[in-house]
Amino acid sequence: MKNIEPKIKKLTADILKDYGQGRTIDKMNAFTSPDMDVVVDILDKLQKILFPGYYRNKNYHFYTAENNLQTLIEDVLFNLTKQISMYLRYLPEYSGADYRASKDRAQEIALEFLSRIPKIRDLVETSVQAEFDGDPAAFNKDEIIFCYPGMYAIMVFRLAHEFYDLGVPMLPRIMSEYAHGKTGIDIHPGATIGRYFFIDHGTGIVVGETTIIGDNVKIYQGVTIGALSTRGGQNLRSKKRHLPFWAAKQSLVTTPSSAAIRSLPCLFRPDPTSASKARNSTSAARADRPLKRRTWTRIKPGITLFNYSLRYLIVFPAIN
Q1: Is residue 216 a part of any domain in this protein?
Q2: What's the number of domains the chain is made of?
Q3: Is residue 298 part of a domain?
Q4: CB atoms within 10 A of CB 224
Q5: Which domain, by its residues, includes 317?
Q6: Quick one: which of 82, 83, 85, 81 has its CA closest to 107?
Q7: Any domain includes 69
Q8: Crossing angle, helix 171-183 and helix 149-165, to 10 degrees?
Q9: N or C end of the chain: which has fewer CB within 10 A?
Q10: What ranges make up the beta strands (E) of the chain?
């Protein structure tokens, strides 16, 4: 095509003009914004630190584990500090702060995070054991670490949750959403999840920010533990959005043995004590009706969830 250069110049001018409208999407400070690729690289290196015998550092050859680990830690510390300093600027107290102030605080957070690696590894180990004990199709634990998407999603959650706990904005969500895109498992970094947490298959699982899950809980594909409604929008921020509900038969929730939730008529109802306070006399008559939406957040120990996002749920003792 002849005379293409003027057309390209006009397109460029038109788009640059569109950039000047002052909207959220018009920001152009890309060089001082968080870098998704760097975060993914940090996750990759943290995975090598968590599983030293499974994932190799292909860029360098080391003769000792100490040299290998120290190089990884230095690399992660440097990049984490740089990224966290950018994320801190989203907080009001750092929005206009000097770069050095945010960098110093970022390094403190990065060092504190790295000091928690042994605790994170302990939690990840319990999930490896739970996956192996709970899945007869698992050939060995190496297969779980290399192949199971649930294992990867849990690992990323454990890492992201520590940043969430340390008050770092956005970074934990970027990590968890990367794992979400890779595995189909969406675990908010703000969720509280106990030991021996087990995800099998995993596609379609959603765990919300204020969810509380106890020890020895198993979740299978298609489970959503989410909010009743987000119609309140930003007014719901920092509030408990996932209301605790109890099974009609308490023994099924509190028993050490597992239980399963399948897509059958619902057996869940709100705890009558809390329900009486929350409902007026008109709506109290509905308290005995089966719940047809995702309402249970506090998952107690020894529970297995199947297709929890479906309209009707029932609890059964699991067959071990």
Answers
A1: yes
A2: 1
A3: yes
A4: 18
A5: 191-229+239-320
A6: 81
A7: no
A8: 170
A9: N
A10: 186-187, 192-193, 198-199, 206-207, 212-213, 218-219, 224-225, 246-247, 259-262, 268-269, 298-299, 304-305, 314-317
User: Could you tell me if residue 257 is inside a domain?
Assistant: yes
Q: Rounded to two decimals, what is the model's pTM? A: 0.74
What pLDDT score was predicted for residue 55?
Answer: 85
3-state SS, 148-194, equals CHHHHHHHHHHHHHHHHHCCCCCHHHHHHHHHHHHHCCEECCCCEEC
Question: What pLDDT does residue 239 have?
Answer: 57
Cα(191)–Cα(153) distance, integer angstroms: 13
The tokens 């959650």 sit on which residue? Answer: 157
**What's the whole-number mean pLDDT along residues 269-286?**
38
pLDDT at 292: 39
Q: Is the dihedral of CA 180, 217, 191, 44 positive or negative?
A: negative
In angstroms, how far apart are the furthest CA atoms of the chain?
79
> Of 9-18, 98-107, 309-318, which range is least confident?
309-318
pLDDT at res. 221: 86
Structure tokens that stand for 115 in this block? 């000091």
User: Are 88 and 169 spatial neighbours (Cβ–Cβ below 8 Å)?
Assistant: yes
Tokens at 219, concatenated: 């979740």
The dihedral region occupied by 209, where left means phi > 0, alpha psi between -120 and 50, and beta the remainder, is alpha
